[in-house]
Amino acid sequence: MQNYNIEEGPSTLGALRALIPQRSCTFTEALRVAELQASRLLTLLRVEQAPIPSEIISELPRIQVEYRPIPMSGLSYWNGTVWVIGLNRAEPPTRQRFTLLHEYKHIIDHGRVEALYPGSSRHSADRQAEQAADFFAGCALMPRLLLKRAWANGLQTPAQLAHHFETSELAICVRLAQVGLVDNTDRHGGQAIYRRESAPLHLAKETRVKLEGMLDIERTADVRLGVSRKVKTQGGRDGDGYSLPQQRLNHGPADPRDVTRA
């Protein structure tokens, strides 16, 4: 198996953070940065074919992945020595893979959240951060080039593509809309945004219903749990020099009725 623990020059995390503009961004720009970061991640780790291995994150320096009995899909925090990504051990592998990349995006964004996600009259800054993390995960697990290549080679049903990329069919449907391989998408800045009405009309009815009811394609938590992802972060600096004062990171609870997520 290929070793993804590569440290040649700047760290992988540092290289991805370097792509964030040193100014305030619009949400459209933040989404473009997220896709660029996903592409750069795969390039740095020399990943050129599907399925994208989870080891591209789990084998990185200063990243510790733990499978826990937690009441949400995932969480991430700095423990003073390494970045910890906690994954719900009871969830399917496809969901865990998506959650892993989603949480890594939060780690990349640390220290630049306010500049990347300004919020709007329709979406809070926290919600934009969650959408961008979803988008990053989709871009990393289902890269635009590889998805179009698979489509051209005859893999054109959600089931076929989900098997090929080791993701859920719902995640595949959203990603197909984002790259323009299906019609009737709601677009924002050139990318399909996770919206109730963004389900492709030609998909099976039961698939459309699921898509229309969720923003979080891979990681919908049960709002009845009332869980708020507040994780205490130890002080200090991470491996790339980012200051990490003691604070509580809150990505918020998920409420499928409001298409927000934990």
CATH topology: Arc Repressor Mutant, subunit A
- The number of helices is 10
CATH class: Mainly Alpha
Largest sheet: 3 strands, mixed
Domain count:
1
Order of adjacent strands in the largest pleated sheet: 1-3-2
What would your notes on this structure say?
By secondary structure, the chain is an alpha+beta fold. The protein has one domain (12-258): Arc Repressor Mutant, subunit A. Helices cover 39% and strands 11% of the residues. The chain is built from 10 helices and 7 strands. The chain has helices at residues 12-17, 27-44, 55-58, 93-109, 113-116, 125-141, 144-152, 158-165, 169-179, 205-212, and strands at residues 63-68, 74-78, 83-88, 187-188, 191-192, 230-233, 247-250. A 3-stranded mixed β-sheet has the order 1-3-2, with helices on one face. Strands 4-5 form a two-stranded antiparallel sheet. The longest helix is centred in the N-terminal third of the chain and has 18 residues, at 27-44. The two termini are 33 Å apart.
